[in-house]
Write a structure and sequence with these properties.
InterPro entries: DUF5355. This is YGR122W-like protein. The chain has helices at 19-22, 27-39, 49-70, 75-105, 113-134, 143-182, 189-214, 224-244, 248-263, 268-273, 282-302, 322-351, 359-363; strands spanning 379-382, 385-389, 395-397. By secondary structure, it is mainly α. The chain folds into two domains: 1-173 and 376-402, no CATH class; 183-371, no CATH class. A three-stranded antiparallel β-sheet has the order 1-2-3. The longest helix is centred in the middle third of the chain and has 40 residues, at 143-182.
Length: 402
């Protein structure tokens, strides 16, 4: 393993050109290894994620077969097995997120892409579990092995986080399909009641995801913007519940905190662009709402990006995952503006409640978060083949995984 390699930011790994390993394995494995090196070359943009998974799985399968044949493999071979399997899990992570984004862009909560995304994440997590077993990770106090253990634990947490994020994004998709269809100028009381029936549950999911995300800091997924995204949703969902129980002052306070988190992610001009409070023109309000909710449709139709294109690491300190950006632009920001308009109008005309600005008091109203019990796909190595088990109990050869 490499020095300072306990963070998932370094993934996927690149194989070295050292002659030590190439002289330790058969020629057919050297060829498979060279294919892996080519696939991970940043200049090879034509190699998509699915192809990368296929190439690296073949190499991992070859290494495992070689190890089983010789009985006692050298440490270099063991390290190659670890590297190959970790990279495949990383590619499953990437394709899981990309498929989740495509599912959200489809605007159809019943789209099969939601399930496909979850399948990829389960395979990646299952592969990490298989790696720990087959390489007996965590059984000694060797420094390199401890590094691998820390890295695999970090990856496992990230898979759990992405699965929880998938549930949240699906919930947003369902809400979007209803609100964008029904909302014209304002949310009606019955619509807010309908949203309120599930708002606490969604807030619990976001709190659970936030707690998981705190354990994933310093990796390839979580940064400050990611955490602000989840916090914004927590306050947003809880504000709906507070409004429905006639606590309009608390609802406004919650929403103000949500907006503060949003302002660290999206430019202030984006909120002002949709600021329907500045206009008393009903027609203009209606047009602004329609533009906000239909913005995604134009963006998705003009998008020419290749499906499953190999991409650079999808997290950085100064940018959000495109998946989160999409949900912000086409739904969360417009919904926030609608809610702000409804809350303030209700409070000014009916409730007359004092706005709660004490963040500590608002946070005391947080429920306990909910975390998923995410189980990975079962992988095994049988008869010189790396295989995984489908949900129906059947077993597939890794080369025909898709």
């Amino acid at each position: 393993m490499r020095e300072n390699s306990v963070s998932t930011k370094v993934l996927p790994y690149k194989l070295s050109n050292s002659s030590k390993i190439t002289t330790s394995i058969p020629n057919e494995l050297v060829l498979l290894r060279n294919a892996c090196i080519t696939s991970s070359d940043s200049s090879s943009s034509k190699v998509d994620i699915i192809t990368c998974i296929d190439i690296w799985l073949k190499y991992a399968n070859g290494l495992l077969t070689y190890r089983s044949q010789i009985g006692n493999a050298a440490a270099l071979v063991e390290e190659e097995i670890v590297t190959a399997l970790i990279n495949v899990a990383t590619f499953y992570q990437d394709i899981g997120v990309e498929t989740l984004h495509r599912a959200y862009e489809s605007s159809q909560p019943s789209n099969s892409l939601w399930t496909t995304s979850g399948t990829y994440l389960k395979r990646g997590l299952g592969l990490i579990s298989f790696l720990k077993k087959t390489c007996k990770i965590g059984t000694t106090n060797d420094d390199k092995e401890i590094q691998v253990l820390d890295l695999t634990n970090q990856l496992s947490l990230e898979f759990q986080l992405l699965q929880e994020l998938g549930i949240i994004i699906l919930a947003l998709s369902k809400l979007r399909s209803k609100v964008s269809k029904d909302a014209v100028v304002d949310l009606e009381p019955q619509e807010l009641k309908d949203l309120g029936k599930s708002s606490v549950f969604y807030a619990k999911l976001c709190i659970g995801s936030y707690n998981t995300a705190l354990q994933c800091q310093g990796g390839r997924i979580v940064d400050g913007l990611f955490l602000n995204f989840l916090q914004s949703l927590i306050y947003l969902f809880l504000s709906i519940n507070q409004y429905n129980i006639d606590e309009c002052g608390i609802a406004i306070g919650m929403l103000q905190e949500s907006i503060k988190k949003l302002l660290s992610i999206v430019p202030n001009s984006q909120l002002k662009e949709l600021d329907i409070l500045s206009s008393t023109d009903t027609t203009r309000k209606r047009d602004l709402i329609k533009i906000a909710f239909k913005r995604k449709m134009h963006a998705s139709t003009s998008k020419k990006q290749r499906i499953f294109q190999k991409a650079v690491s999808f997290s950085s300190k100064n940018d959000m995952m495109s998946l989160l950006r999409s949900s912000l632009d086409d739904f969360i920001v417009p919904l926030t503006i609608l809610l702000r308009y409804r809350y303030q109008r209700t409070n000014e005309n009916y409730s007359f409640k004092t706005v709660e600005n004490d963040v500590d008091k608002l946070n005391e109203l947080f429920p306990r978060g909910k975390s998923s019990d995410f189980q990975g796909t079962e992988w095994s190595f049988q008869d010189d083949h790396l295989t995984f088990e489908n949900s129906n109990g059947t077993t597939n050869n890794c080369i025909n995984y898709f």
